[in-house]
Specification:
Elements (H helix, E strand, L loop, with lengths): L13 E4 L2 E3 L7 E2 L1 E5 L2 E6 L1 H4 L8 E4 L4 E4 L1 E6 L1 H9 L1 E2 L6 H12 L8 E6 L23 E5 L4 E4 L1 H6 L12 E5 L5 E7 L3 H4 L7 H17 L2 E9 L1 H12 L6 E7 L3 H10 L2 E3 L4 E9 L29 H13 L3 E6 L2 H18 L7 E4 L8 H7 L2 E4 L1 H7 L3 H5 L10 H6 L4 E3 L10 H10 L19 H8 L1 H6 L17 E4 L16 E6 L2 E5 L2
Helix pairs in contact: 2-6, 6-7, 9-10, 12-15, 15-16
Length: 541
Amino acid sequence: MWAGASRAAEPADLVLVHARVITLSSQTPAATALATRGEQIVYVGDDKGSNAYIGKNTRVIDASGCTVTPGLVDAHGHLNNLGKILHDVNLVGTTSIDDVVKHVRVYQTKVKAGEWIHGRGWDQNDWTTPAFPTWRDLAATEANPVYLDRVDGHALWVNKRALDVCGITRYTTDPPGGRIVRDAKGEPTGVFVDEATRLIEDRAPAPSAEELDARLEAALANCNSFGLTGVHDAGTTRDVYMSLRRLAVAGKLTLNIYSMIDSQDDVFAREMLAQGPAQEFGGLLTTRAFKLRADGAMGSRGALLLAPYEDDPTNSGLNVQSPDTLYAWTRYALARGFQVGTHAIGDRANRTVLDIYERALREAGTKDARLRIEHAQIVAPEDIPRFAALGVVASMQPTHATSDMPWIAKRVGAERLHGAYAWRSMLASGAVLAFGSDFPVESVNPLLGLYAAVTRQDADGKPAGGWMPEEKLTLEEALRAFTAGAAFASFDEKSAGRIETGMRADLTVLDRDITQSPEHALLVTHAKYTIVRGRVVYERP
Protein backbone atom coordinates (compact mmCIF):
# COMPACT_ATOMS: atom_id res chain seq x y z
CA MET A 1 0.00 0.00 0.00
CA TRP A 2 1.26 3.47 -0.93
CA ALA A 3 2.74 5.42 1.95
CA GLY A 4 0.15 7.60 3.64
CA ALA A 5 -2.83 5.58 2.43
CA SER A 6 -5.20 3.77 4.76
CA ARG A 7 -7.63 0.91 4.38
CA ALA A 8 -10.47 3.41 4.93
CA ALA A 9 -9.70 5.47 1.87
CA GLU A 10 -9.03 4.62 -1.74
CA PRO A 11 -6.51 6.87 -3.49
CA ALA A 12 -7.96 10.03 -4.97
CA ASP A 13 -7.32 11.40 -8.44
CA LEU A 14 -6.53 14.86 -7.11
CA VAL A 15 -5.58 16.23 -3.70
CA LEU A 16 -5.27 19.92 -2.83
CA VAL A 17 -3.30 20.81 0.31
CA HIS A 18 -2.12 23.91 2.20
CA ALA A 19 -5.15 25.86 0.97
CA ARG A 20 -7.61 28.38 2.34
CA VAL A 21 -10.74 26.42 1.45
CA ILE A 22 -13.94 28.48 1.51
CA THR A 23 -16.47 25.66 1.68
CA LEU A 24 -19.71 27.65 2.11
CA SER A 25 -20.83 24.50 3.91
CA SER A 26 -21.98 24.00 7.49
CA GLN A 27 -20.52 20.47 7.44
CA THR A 28 -16.90 21.70 7.41
CA PRO A 29 -16.87 25.51 7.59
CA ALA A 30 -13.07 25.69 7.46
CA ALA A 31 -10.59 23.40 5.72
CA THR A 32 -7.07 23.38 4.34
CA ALA A 33 -7.28 20.32 2.07
CA LEU A 34 -9.64 18.36 -0.13
CA ALA A 35 -9.59 15.32 -2.39
CA THR A 36 -11.52 14.37 -5.51
CA ARG A 37 -12.15 11.06 -7.22
CA GLY A 38 -13.85 10.95 -10.57
CA GLU A 39 -16.34 13.82 -10.64
CA GLN A 40 -16.89 13.96 -6.87
CA ILE A 41 -15.32 15.48 -3.79
CA VAL A 42 -14.41 12.64 -1.44
CA TYR A 43 -12.64 14.46 1.37
CA VAL A 44 -12.69 17.93 2.95
CA GLY A 45 -10.61 18.61 6.04
CA ASP A 46 -7.06 19.23 7.20
CA ASP A 47 -3.79 18.44 5.43
CA LYS A 48 -3.02 15.47 7.64
CA GLY A 49 -6.30 13.78 6.83
CA SER A 50 -5.72 14.17 3.11
CA ASN A 51 -2.63 11.91 3.30
CA ALA A 52 -4.90 8.87 3.33
CA TYR A 53 -6.11 9.78 -0.18
CA ILE A 54 -2.70 10.10 -1.80
CA GLY A 55 -1.72 7.14 -3.97
CA LYS A 56 0.99 6.64 -6.55
CA ASN A 57 -1.21 8.09 -9.34
CA THR A 58 -2.74 10.91 -7.33
CA ARG A 59 -1.98 14.42 -8.49
CA VAL A 60 -1.13 16.58 -5.47
CA ILE A 61 -1.43 20.37 -5.77
CA ASP A 62 0.19 22.51 -3.10
CA ALA A 63 -2.01 25.59 -2.96
CA SER A 64 0.51 27.46 -0.79
CA GLY A 65 -2.13 29.35 1.15
CA CYS A 66 -4.21 30.30 -1.87
CA THR A 67 -8.01 30.32 -1.87
CA VAL A 68 -10.15 27.44 -3.07
CA THR A 69 -13.84 28.19 -3.62
CA PRO A 70 -16.75 26.18 -4.96
CA GLY A 71 -16.59 26.49 -8.74
CA LEU A 72 -17.50 30.03 -9.76
CA VAL A 73 -20.48 30.17 -12.10
CA ASP A 74 -21.62 33.02 -14.31
CA ALA A 75 -25.40 32.95 -14.02
CA HIS A 76 -25.93 35.16 -17.06
CA GLY A 77 -23.53 35.20 -20.00
CA HIS A 78 -23.63 34.94 -23.78
CA LEU A 79 -21.18 32.39 -25.12
CA ASN A 80 -21.85 33.09 -28.78
CA ASN A 81 -21.37 36.83 -28.36
CA LEU A 82 -18.17 36.20 -26.41
CA GLY A 83 -16.95 34.01 -29.25
CA LYS A 84 -17.76 36.79 -31.70
CA ILE A 85 -15.90 39.46 -29.77
CA LEU A 86 -12.85 37.21 -29.48
CA HIS A 87 -12.93 36.76 -33.26
CA ASP A 88 -14.32 40.05 -34.63
CA VAL A 89 -13.56 43.73 -33.97
CA ASN A 90 -13.30 44.24 -30.21
CA LEU A 91 -14.34 47.82 -29.42
CA VAL A 92 -14.44 47.52 -25.63
CA GLY A 93 -12.56 50.44 -24.13
CA THR A 94 -12.62 52.63 -27.23
CA THR A 95 -12.77 56.27 -26.22
CA SER A 96 -14.02 58.08 -29.32
CA ILE A 97 -15.56 57.64 -32.75
CA ASP A 98 -12.09 58.03 -34.29
CA ASP A 99 -10.85 55.22 -32.06
CA VAL A 100 -13.66 52.95 -33.27
CA VAL A 101 -12.95 53.76 -36.91
CA LYS A 102 -9.25 53.03 -36.37
CA HIS A 103 -10.07 49.55 -35.03
CA VAL A 104 -12.37 48.82 -37.96
CA ARG A 105 -9.80 50.03 -40.50
CA VAL A 106 -7.14 47.75 -39.02
CA TYR A 107 -9.54 44.79 -39.24
CA GLN A 108 -10.33 45.66 -42.87
CA THR A 109 -6.75 44.86 -43.82
CA LYS A 110 -7.43 41.22 -42.85
CA VAL A 111 -10.53 40.68 -45.01
CA LYS A 112 -11.55 41.05 -48.62
CA ALA A 113 -13.45 44.07 -49.93
CA GLY A 114 -17.18 43.43 -49.76
CA GLU A 115 -17.03 40.97 -46.84
CA TRP A 116 -19.21 41.84 -43.87
CA ILE A 117 -17.39 43.15 -40.79
CA HIS A 118 -18.86 42.81 -37.33
CA GLY A 119 -17.66 44.45 -34.13
CA ARG A 120 -18.89 45.00 -30.62
CA GLY A 121 -18.17 47.06 -27.54
CA TRP A 122 -18.61 50.79 -28.33
CA ASP A 123 -20.27 52.91 -25.66
CA GLN A 124 -21.13 56.52 -26.41
CA ASN A 125 -21.19 57.23 -22.67
CA ASP A 126 -17.39 56.86 -22.70
CA TRP A 127 -16.95 59.53 -25.38
CA THR A 128 -16.44 63.27 -24.88
CA THR A 129 -19.83 63.86 -26.52
CA PRO A 130 -22.11 61.05 -25.26
CA ALA A 131 -24.46 61.01 -28.25
CA PHE A 132 -25.27 58.24 -30.71
CA PRO A 133 -22.97 58.19 -33.77
CA THR A 134 -24.18 58.09 -37.40
CA TRP A 135 -23.30 56.26 -40.61
CA ARG A 136 -21.38 59.36 -41.70
CA ASP A 137 -18.88 58.72 -38.91
CA LEU A 138 -18.01 55.43 -40.62
CA ALA A 139 -17.47 56.97 -44.07
CA ALA A 140 -13.86 55.69 -44.18
CA THR A 141 -15.04 52.06 -43.95
CA GLU A 142 -17.24 51.85 -47.06
CA ALA A 143 -15.17 49.06 -48.68
CA ASN A 144 -17.18 46.63 -46.51
CA PRO A 145 -20.64 46.48 -44.97
CA VAL A 146 -19.91 47.23 -41.29
CA TYR A 147 -22.22 46.60 -38.34
CA LEU A 148 -21.11 47.34 -34.79
CA ASP A 149 -22.98 46.27 -31.66
CA ARG A 150 -23.11 48.64 -28.73
CA VAL A 151 -21.48 47.16 -25.62
CA ASP A 152 -24.86 46.00 -24.26
CA GLY A 153 -25.93 44.40 -27.54
CA HIS A 154 -29.12 46.50 -27.60
CA ALA A 155 -28.07 49.01 -30.25
CA LEU A 156 -26.35 48.59 -33.60
CA TRP A 157 -24.34 51.17 -35.56
CA VAL A 158 -23.80 50.59 -39.28
CA ASN A 159 -22.12 52.28 -42.20
CA LYS A 160 -23.86 53.50 -45.36
CA ARG A 161 -22.91 50.40 -47.30
CA ALA A 162 -24.69 48.19 -44.77
CA LEU A 163 -27.78 50.44 -44.96
CA ASP A 164 -27.81 50.15 -48.73
CA VAL A 165 -27.23 46.38 -48.82
CA CYS A 166 -30.11 45.88 -46.39
CA GLY A 167 -32.37 48.32 -48.22
CA ILE A 168 -32.93 50.59 -45.23
CA THR A 169 -34.48 53.95 -46.20
CA ARG A 170 -36.66 56.62 -44.63
CA TYR A 171 -39.64 54.48 -45.64
CA THR A 172 -38.51 51.49 -43.56
CA THR A 173 -40.87 51.23 -40.60
CA ASP A 174 -39.87 50.58 -37.01
CA PRO A 175 -40.54 46.94 -36.10
CA PRO A 176 -42.47 46.09 -32.91
CA GLY A 177 -40.10 46.39 -29.94
CA GLY A 178 -37.48 48.31 -31.91
CA ARG A 179 -36.53 51.78 -33.08
CA ILE A 180 -34.65 53.08 -36.11
CA VAL A 181 -32.91 56.25 -34.95
CA ARG A 182 -33.65 59.03 -37.44
CA ASP A 183 -32.49 62.58 -38.05
CA ALA A 184 -34.70 65.67 -38.17
CA LYS A 185 -35.67 64.86 -41.78
CA GLY A 186 -36.70 61.33 -40.92
CA GLU A 187 -33.68 59.69 -42.53
CA PRO A 188 -32.03 56.70 -40.79
CA THR A 189 -28.88 57.78 -38.96
CA GLY A 190 -27.31 54.33 -38.98
CA VAL A 191 -28.24 53.37 -35.39
CA PHE A 192 -30.84 50.71 -34.63
CA VAL A 193 -32.21 49.92 -31.16
CA ASP A 194 -33.38 46.54 -29.84
CA GLU A 195 -35.62 44.64 -32.30
CA ALA A 196 -34.70 47.02 -35.11
CA THR A 197 -31.17 45.58 -35.04
CA ARG A 198 -32.54 42.44 -36.68
CA LEU A 199 -33.17 44.43 -39.88
CA ILE A 200 -29.39 44.31 -40.30
CA GLU A 201 -28.35 41.17 -38.43
CA ASP A 202 -30.75 38.91 -40.32
CA ARG A 203 -29.07 39.95 -43.59
CA ALA A 204 -25.49 39.40 -42.40
CA PRO A 205 -23.96 36.04 -43.34
CA ALA A 206 -23.97 33.36 -40.64
CA PRO A 207 -20.69 31.62 -39.73
CA SER A 208 -20.12 28.06 -40.91
CA ALA A 209 -20.45 25.23 -38.40
CA GLU A 210 -16.65 25.00 -38.24
CA GLU A 211 -16.30 28.74 -37.61
CA LEU A 212 -18.96 28.70 -34.91
CA ASP A 213 -17.37 25.70 -33.18
CA ALA A 214 -13.99 27.47 -33.15
CA ARG A 215 -15.51 30.64 -31.69
CA LEU A 216 -17.39 28.78 -28.97
CA GLU A 217 -14.34 26.70 -28.12
CA ALA A 218 -12.39 29.95 -27.67
CA ALA A 219 -15.20 31.34 -25.51
CA LEU A 220 -15.16 28.25 -23.28
CA ALA A 221 -11.39 28.49 -22.84
CA ASN A 222 -11.70 32.19 -22.02
CA CYS A 223 -14.27 31.44 -19.32
CA ASN A 224 -12.07 28.70 -17.84
CA SER A 225 -9.09 31.06 -17.71
CA PHE A 226 -11.01 33.31 -15.32
CA GLY A 227 -11.96 30.45 -13.00
CA LEU A 228 -15.45 29.76 -14.28
CA THR A 229 -16.70 26.20 -14.01
CA GLY A 230 -20.19 26.92 -15.33
CA VAL A 231 -22.22 29.39 -17.37
CA HIS A 232 -25.93 29.98 -17.72
CA ASP A 233 -26.10 30.77 -21.45
CA ALA A 234 -28.81 33.43 -21.60
CA GLY A 235 -30.36 32.93 -25.01
CA THR A 236 -29.22 29.74 -26.75
CA THR A 237 -30.22 29.53 -30.41
CA ARG A 238 -30.36 26.38 -32.53
CA ASP A 239 -26.92 26.90 -34.10
CA VAL A 240 -25.27 27.49 -30.72
CA TYR A 241 -27.01 24.47 -29.18
CA MET A 242 -25.86 22.22 -32.00
CA SER A 243 -22.32 23.59 -31.72
CA LEU A 244 -22.22 22.90 -27.98
CA ARG A 245 -23.34 19.35 -28.65
CA ARG A 246 -20.59 18.89 -31.25
CA LEU A 247 -18.00 20.21 -28.80
CA ALA A 248 -19.31 17.85 -26.11
CA VAL A 249 -19.05 14.85 -28.43
CA ALA A 250 -15.45 15.87 -29.18
CA GLY A 251 -14.64 16.14 -25.46
CA LYS A 252 -14.17 19.90 -25.71
CA LEU A 253 -17.03 21.08 -23.50
CA THR A 254 -15.08 22.39 -20.50
CA LEU A 255 -17.93 24.14 -18.67
CA ASN A 256 -21.18 23.06 -17.12
CA ILE A 257 -23.65 24.77 -19.46
CA TYR A 258 -27.15 25.64 -18.28
CA SER A 259 -28.85 26.54 -21.52
CA MET A 260 -31.64 29.13 -21.60
CA ILE A 261 -33.43 28.57 -24.92
CA ASP A 262 -33.91 31.79 -26.90
CA SER A 263 -37.62 32.47 -27.46
CA GLN A 264 -36.76 34.63 -30.46
CA ASP A 265 -35.50 31.56 -32.33
CA ASP A 266 -39.18 30.68 -32.61
CA VAL A 267 -39.22 27.29 -34.37
CA PHE A 268 -36.30 25.96 -32.32
CA ALA A 269 -37.88 27.26 -29.11
CA ARG A 270 -41.13 25.43 -29.79
CA GLU A 271 -39.27 22.23 -30.66
CA MET A 272 -37.26 22.32 -27.42
CA LEU A 273 -40.29 23.09 -25.26
CA ALA A 274 -42.18 20.22 -26.89
CA GLN A 275 -39.32 17.83 -26.07
CA GLY A 276 -39.18 18.92 -22.43
CA PRO A 277 -36.17 19.55 -20.15
CA ALA A 278 -33.05 17.51 -20.84
CA GLN A 279 -29.60 16.78 -19.45
CA GLU A 280 -26.98 15.55 -21.88
CA PHE A 281 -23.37 14.41 -21.80
CA GLY A 282 -23.44 13.43 -18.17
CA GLY A 283 -25.04 16.72 -17.18
CA LEU A 284 -22.52 19.00 -18.89
CA LEU A 285 -25.30 20.42 -21.07
CA THR A 286 -28.63 21.08 -19.36
CA THR A 287 -31.67 22.49 -21.17
CA ARG A 288 -34.33 23.49 -18.68
CA ALA A 289 -34.72 27.26 -18.95
CA PHE A 290 -36.42 29.58 -21.43
CA LYS A 291 -35.36 33.16 -22.19
CA LEU A 292 -37.79 36.06 -22.69
CA ARG A 293 -37.21 39.82 -23.09
CA ALA A 294 -39.42 42.48 -21.54
CA ASP A 295 -37.39 45.55 -22.54
CA GLY A 296 -34.10 46.89 -23.84
CA ALA A 297 -31.09 48.38 -22.06
CA MET A 298 -30.43 51.50 -20.06
CA GLY A 299 -27.44 52.70 -22.08
CA SER A 300 -29.45 52.84 -25.30
CA ARG A 301 -32.60 54.13 -23.52
CA GLY A 302 -34.56 51.02 -24.35
CA ALA A 303 -35.15 49.93 -20.73
CA LEU A 304 -38.87 50.26 -19.99
CA LEU A 305 -39.63 52.81 -17.25
CA LEU A 306 -42.70 53.78 -15.25
CA ALA A 307 -41.98 57.44 -16.06
CA PRO A 308 -40.00 58.97 -18.94
CA TYR A 309 -36.23 59.17 -18.99
CA GLU A 310 -34.86 62.14 -17.11
CA ASP A 311 -32.60 62.98 -20.08
CA ASP A 312 -35.18 62.09 -22.78
CA PRO A 313 -38.65 63.19 -21.61
CA THR A 314 -40.39 61.89 -24.73
CA ASN A 315 -39.15 58.33 -24.20
CA SER A 316 -40.05 55.68 -21.62
CA GLY A 317 -38.33 52.73 -23.29
CA LEU A 318 -39.42 49.74 -25.35
CA ASN A 319 -41.54 46.62 -24.97
CA VAL A 320 -39.26 44.19 -26.78
CA GLN A 321 -41.82 41.41 -26.35
CA SER A 322 -45.35 42.46 -25.48
CA PRO A 323 -46.89 41.56 -22.10
CA ASP A 324 -49.31 39.23 -23.89
CA THR A 325 -46.40 37.44 -25.56
CA LEU A 326 -44.50 37.20 -22.28
CA TYR A 327 -47.52 35.74 -20.51
CA ALA A 328 -48.29 33.20 -23.26
CA TRP A 329 -44.69 31.94 -23.37
CA THR A 330 -44.47 31.79 -19.57
CA ARG A 331 -47.62 29.71 -19.26
CA TYR A 332 -46.54 27.36 -22.04
CA ALA A 333 -43.01 26.98 -20.65
CA LEU A 334 -44.32 26.19 -17.16
CA ALA A 335 -46.67 23.60 -18.60
CA ARG A 336 -43.71 21.92 -20.30
CA GLY A 337 -41.62 21.84 -17.10
CA PHE A 338 -39.34 24.74 -18.05
CA GLN A 339 -38.06 27.55 -15.91
CA VAL A 340 -38.44 31.06 -17.39
CA GLY A 341 -35.82 33.80 -17.19
CA THR A 342 -37.02 37.18 -18.43
CA HIS A 343 -34.73 40.10 -19.28
CA ALA A 344 -36.10 43.12 -17.38
CA ILE A 345 -34.02 46.21 -16.66
CA GLY A 346 -36.40 49.14 -16.15
CA ASP A 347 -38.86 49.50 -13.27
CA ARG A 348 -41.91 49.12 -15.52
CA ALA A 349 -40.44 46.02 -17.13
CA ASN A 350 -39.72 44.46 -13.73
CA ARG A 351 -43.21 45.22 -12.44
CA THR A 352 -44.81 43.85 -15.60
CA VAL A 353 -42.82 40.62 -15.37
CA LEU A 354 -43.61 40.19 -11.68
CA ASP A 355 -47.31 40.67 -12.47
CA ILE A 356 -47.12 38.09 -15.27
CA TYR A 357 -45.23 35.62 -13.09
CA GLU A 358 -47.74 36.03 -10.25
CA ARG A 359 -50.66 35.33 -12.58
CA ALA A 360 -48.95 32.43 -14.38
CA LEU A 361 -47.88 30.73 -11.15
CA ARG A 362 -51.36 31.06 -9.66
CA GLU A 363 -53.00 29.60 -12.75
CA ALA A 364 -50.45 26.84 -13.33
CA GLY A 365 -50.17 25.78 -9.70
CA THR A 366 -46.49 25.01 -10.32
CA LYS A 367 -44.42 24.37 -7.22
CA ASP A 368 -40.78 25.48 -6.97
CA ALA A 369 -40.72 27.05 -10.46
CA ARG A 370 -37.73 29.29 -9.60
CA LEU A 371 -38.73 31.82 -12.23
CA ARG A 372 -35.97 34.34 -12.82
CA ILE A 373 -35.68 38.00 -13.68
CA GLU A 374 -32.48 38.67 -15.57
CA HIS A 375 -30.79 41.98 -14.61
CA ALA A 376 -33.42 43.63 -12.32
CA GLN A 377 -31.38 46.82 -12.53
CA ILE A 378 -34.01 49.45 -11.71
CA VAL A 379 -36.81 48.12 -9.50
CA ALA A 380 -39.45 50.19 -7.74
CA PRO A 381 -38.69 49.74 -4.00
CA GLU A 382 -42.22 48.47 -3.33
CA ASP A 383 -41.64 45.67 -5.87
CA ILE A 384 -38.44 44.33 -4.30
CA PRO A 385 -40.23 42.17 -1.66
CA ARG A 386 -42.25 40.53 -4.44
CA PHE A 387 -39.19 38.59 -5.64
CA ALA A 388 -39.03 36.56 -2.44
CA ALA A 389 -42.80 36.34 -2.08
CA LEU A 390 -43.11 34.78 -5.56
CA GLY A 391 -39.92 32.72 -5.30
CA VAL A 392 -38.36 34.69 -8.18
CA VAL A 393 -34.58 34.50 -8.46
CA ALA A 394 -32.85 37.87 -8.88
CA SER A 395 -30.25 37.13 -11.57
CA MET A 396 -28.07 40.24 -11.37
CA GLN A 397 -24.67 41.42 -12.58
CA PRO A 398 -22.60 43.50 -10.11
CA THR A 399 -20.30 45.08 -12.71
CA HIS A 400 -23.30 46.69 -14.40
CA ALA A 401 -23.58 48.97 -11.38
CA THR A 402 -19.97 50.13 -11.46
CA SER A 403 -20.10 50.62 -15.23
CA ASP A 404 -23.36 52.58 -15.11
CA MET A 405 -22.86 54.64 -11.95
CA PRO A 406 -21.20 57.63 -13.70
CA TRP A 407 -24.32 58.37 -15.79
CA ILE A 408 -27.31 56.43 -14.46
CA ALA A 409 -28.62 59.33 -12.33
CA LYS A 410 -28.87 61.47 -15.49
CA ARG A 411 -30.97 58.72 -17.10
CA VAL A 412 -33.46 58.04 -14.33
CA GLY A 413 -33.15 60.85 -11.78
CA ALA A 414 -32.25 60.63 -8.10
CA GLU A 415 -35.57 59.22 -6.87
CA ARG A 416 -35.43 56.02 -8.94
CA LEU A 417 -31.93 55.24 -7.69
CA HIS A 418 -33.46 53.88 -4.47
CA GLY A 419 -34.18 50.64 -6.32
CA ALA A 420 -31.09 50.64 -8.53
CA TYR A 421 -28.73 47.63 -8.49
CA ALA A 422 -30.16 46.92 -5.05
CA TRP A 423 -28.36 43.71 -4.04
CA ARG A 424 -28.50 44.25 -0.29
CA SER A 425 -32.19 45.16 -0.42
CA MET A 426 -32.94 42.08 -2.53
CA LEU A 427 -31.03 39.81 -0.17
CA ALA A 428 -32.56 41.36 2.94
CA SER A 429 -36.04 40.83 1.53
CA GLY A 430 -35.37 37.08 1.27
CA ALA A 431 -34.70 36.83 -2.47
CA VAL A 432 -32.06 34.47 -3.87
CA LEU A 433 -29.26 36.29 -5.69
CA ALA A 434 -27.56 34.61 -8.66
CA PHE A 435 -24.66 36.68 -9.97
CA GLY A 436 -23.11 36.84 -13.41
CA SER A 437 -21.50 39.35 -15.72
CA ASP A 438 -23.67 39.47 -18.87
CA PHE A 439 -20.43 38.90 -20.79
CA PRO A 440 -19.30 40.22 -23.22
CA VAL A 441 -21.25 43.32 -22.11
CA GLU A 442 -18.93 43.25 -19.09
CA SER A 443 -15.71 41.33 -18.54
CA VAL A 444 -15.96 37.56 -18.09
CA ASN A 445 -13.79 37.85 -14.97
CA PRO A 446 -15.93 37.00 -11.89
CA LEU A 447 -13.33 38.58 -9.60
CA LEU A 448 -14.37 41.96 -11.00
CA GLY A 449 -17.94 41.08 -10.08
CA LEU A 450 -16.88 40.20 -6.53
CA TYR A 451 -15.01 43.50 -6.30
CA ALA A 452 -18.00 45.48 -7.55
CA ALA A 453 -20.34 43.70 -5.13
CA VAL A 454 -18.24 44.37 -2.02
CA THR A 455 -17.03 47.90 -2.88
CA ARG A 456 -19.42 49.50 -5.42
CA GLN A 457 -16.35 51.36 -6.65
CA ASP A 458 -14.43 51.62 -9.91
CA ALA A 459 -10.90 50.30 -10.37
CA ASP A 460 -9.49 53.54 -8.96
CA GLY A 461 -11.44 53.14 -5.73
CA LYS A 462 -13.97 55.85 -6.59
CA PRO A 463 -16.26 57.06 -5.23
CA ALA A 464 -14.83 56.97 -1.72
CA GLY A 465 -16.88 54.59 0.40
CA GLY A 466 -18.71 53.26 -2.65
CA TRP A 467 -21.67 54.35 -4.76
CA MET A 468 -24.89 53.86 -2.76
CA PRO A 469 -22.83 51.93 -0.19
CA GLU A 470 -25.91 50.72 1.68
CA GLU A 471 -26.31 48.14 -1.12
CA LYS A 472 -22.85 46.57 -0.69
CA LEU A 473 -22.47 42.87 0.10
CA THR A 474 -19.92 41.04 2.20
CA LEU A 475 -17.36 38.88 0.41
CA GLU A 476 -19.10 35.69 1.55
CA GLU A 477 -22.49 36.94 0.37
CA ALA A 478 -21.08 37.83 -3.03
CA LEU A 479 -19.30 34.46 -3.29
CA ARG A 480 -22.54 32.67 -2.49
CA ALA A 481 -24.28 34.52 -5.32
CA PHE A 482 -21.60 33.31 -7.77
CA THR A 483 -21.76 29.73 -6.44
CA ALA A 484 -24.66 28.52 -4.28
CA GLY A 485 -27.03 31.14 -5.71
CA ALA A 486 -26.19 30.18 -9.27
CA ALA A 487 -26.61 26.50 -8.36
CA PHE A 488 -30.04 27.15 -6.86
CA ALA A 489 -31.05 29.19 -9.91
CA SER A 490 -30.30 26.15 -12.11
CA PHE A 491 -31.83 23.50 -9.79
CA ASP A 492 -28.32 22.21 -9.11
CA GLU A 493 -27.93 22.93 -5.40
CA LYS A 494 -27.74 19.25 -4.45
CA SER A 495 -24.59 18.82 -6.56
CA ALA A 496 -22.86 22.20 -6.68
CA GLY A 497 -22.32 25.48 -4.86
CA ARG A 498 -20.60 24.06 -1.75
CA ILE A 499 -17.42 22.14 -1.01
CA GLU A 500 -18.35 19.03 0.89
CA THR A 501 -18.05 15.29 0.41
CA GLY A 502 -20.38 13.91 -2.23
CA MET A 503 -20.66 17.21 -4.09
CA ARG A 504 -19.47 17.61 -7.66
CA ALA A 505 -15.77 18.45 -7.97
CA ASP A 506 -16.20 21.90 -9.52
CA LEU A 507 -13.53 24.09 -7.94
CA THR A 508 -11.85 27.44 -8.48
CA VAL A 509 -8.34 27.97 -7.11
CA LEU A 510 -7.28 31.61 -6.83
CA ASP A 511 -3.70 32.84 -6.58
CA ARG A 512 -4.01 34.45 -3.13
CA ASP A 513 -5.97 34.28 0.11
CA ILE A 514 -8.74 36.72 -0.75
CA THR A 515 -10.07 36.63 2.81
CA GLN A 516 -6.86 38.21 4.12
CA SER A 517 -6.24 40.61 1.23
CA PRO A 518 -7.57 44.15 0.84
CA GLU A 519 -10.68 44.44 -1.32
CA HIS A 520 -8.72 46.20 -4.05
CA ALA A 521 -6.57 43.04 -4.44
CA LEU A 522 -9.56 41.32 -6.06
CA LEU A 523 -8.78 43.35 -9.17
CA VAL A 524 -5.38 41.65 -9.54
CA THR A 525 -6.38 38.19 -8.34
CA HIS A 526 -6.23 35.43 -10.94
CA ALA A 527 -7.50 31.92 -11.33
CA LYS A 528 -4.62 29.53 -10.69
CA TYR A 529 -6.54 26.34 -11.48
CA THR A 530 -10.03 25.73 -12.80
CA ILE A 531 -11.40 22.27 -12.07
CA VAL A 532 -14.59 21.02 -13.72
CA ARG A 533 -15.99 17.67 -12.58
CA GLY A 534 -12.60 16.70 -11.17
CA ARG A 535 -10.73 17.59 -14.36
CA VAL A 536 -8.20 20.44 -14.42
CA VAL A 537 -9.36 22.41 -17.47
CA TYR A 538 -7.18 25.46 -16.86
CA GLU A 539 -3.81 25.96 -15.18
CA ARG A 540 -2.29 29.43 -15.05
CA PRO A 541 1.15 29.44 -16.75
